């Protein structure tokens, strides 16, 4: 804690009477000490974190915290409220001690490390009582910065009574994880046991037990509200509970574990959270799991395709193509593999996050079917939207299927045969016999609609084509428009291709620009910033799929922005009367001479890109401002 806490950041008597007032008062201390540059922005970031899970704990402690771009230097604020403040703690009691952690936006793990340090202090006997009785800032500072003594530091002292293993992890992977770990360590030491606790936090898994340690362990306490691997503890005495149970009574849990029956692996209990989170939170975490696994495939596939088209592409009547047998054609083929796999990977790992390994195979297969319209007689697959639907359906179906208590003879077959086969047949039937026919009919209807509109007002057709192009970024709607424009090229009509060609790169380039601009406002994280670089490269060569990771992560902000920006570009394409005889899009076509008016083509693209970036930032900013409403209630 040295260097993070100072006298100026300690308040022994908070004036606040409500939660939002606590945030403002403590943030003001940070601002006065020069640690943050914007109070309102930092408070909004604290509320963003609070929305993922309340940071009020039993025993009167609350630890609000945030990573924020307005933090200049990491710091901890200590606030004490003698009368107590209703904070929403699990025990229903008022909170008296508030520890606010401010971490710079680019310090990815710093606030977690600080939380781990705080946890070791808060769990010490008598610490809270001494803190509440402190009469000076110097006294509080000394409490937090004093070095732990050997007899109180359970990490240093070993006992010879035996070995207790622990596993902790909360859904967010922050404070509860480390508080529970400290509680298990302290209780085991007091009981005379050597102890090692694995923490499954947001910075990854730390201190995992080795095979030798598991073999000699007397008991295992698994205090988790998230998925962890329990197979490794087969044949050991194991107690499984929620993470908060360890904070409340670690000693009792260790006693239960020492007398528990030997753990047996079953498909219904393996790697299963001890308690459930809200359905909305579970849905979001499952989606983010699929997106995180999909991103490398998007980047690898997209950049290889972009490289091959940029260096080996030749404009032809059928579009931008690479000569067969050339080196760049082989590079293109490898890139196509990556792009082909990204949709099944998204679907598969969404299902995996929900149902664990039994859901992976049917999730992957379901994503492949969703993206291949030939399975249900459609002209195009459902793209990333269909993959999300397939992953969720498979995940929850397999999860439901594996929760039954099967006989001992059947149980071993459930995770490796019964659940995967049933899940695969289930999702295949859904797409072939339920979803498939409406999709095929929709594709036909869209073609007819475009044909009817093509003889009318060019602004109307431009809006429709642009909205479809931006909706799913290379998915079925975009493919319908693309094939419609390609068909008109064969009839000598190249204006429709010209309008669409300037709309194709808008989504990836627009989201790349939004990520670069919005990062300093805290609207995009480091991973999205890096994704923006890949999206920019893909957009330059007309690969609209580069925006998919952004859309999958935040569809309600990204998809509308992409649609409007693409519509702007497409309408300008018609207004400028752009003609393109190459069935492709993006700035690369300008360089290759595919447009009859190259400068106006770039203007149309730029207008669409700026529109998408502006709208995406505005929508994300609006979401952030909604979270600020709590912070400004004290003004009313």
Automatic annotation (TrEMBL):
The chain crosses the membrane at residues 291-311, 331-354, 375-398, 418-437, 449-467, 473-490, 502-522, 559-579, 599-619. It is found in: Cell inner membrane. InterPro entries: Bacterial_PTS_Sugar_Transport, PTrfase/Anion_transptr, PTS_EIIA_type-2_dom, PTS_EIIB-like_sf, PTS_EIIB_2, PTS_EIIB_2/3, PTS_EIIC, PTS_EIIC_2. The keyword Transmembrane helix applies. Its main location: membrane. Keywords: Cell membrane, Kinase, Membrane, Phosphoprotein, Phosphotransferase system, Sugar transport, Transferase, Transmembrane, Transmembrane helix, Transport. CDD domains: PTS_IIA_fru, PTS_IIB_fructose. It is an enzyme of class 2 (transferase). This is protein-N(pi)-phosphohistidine--D-fructose phosphotransferase. It comes from Buttiauxella selenatireducens.
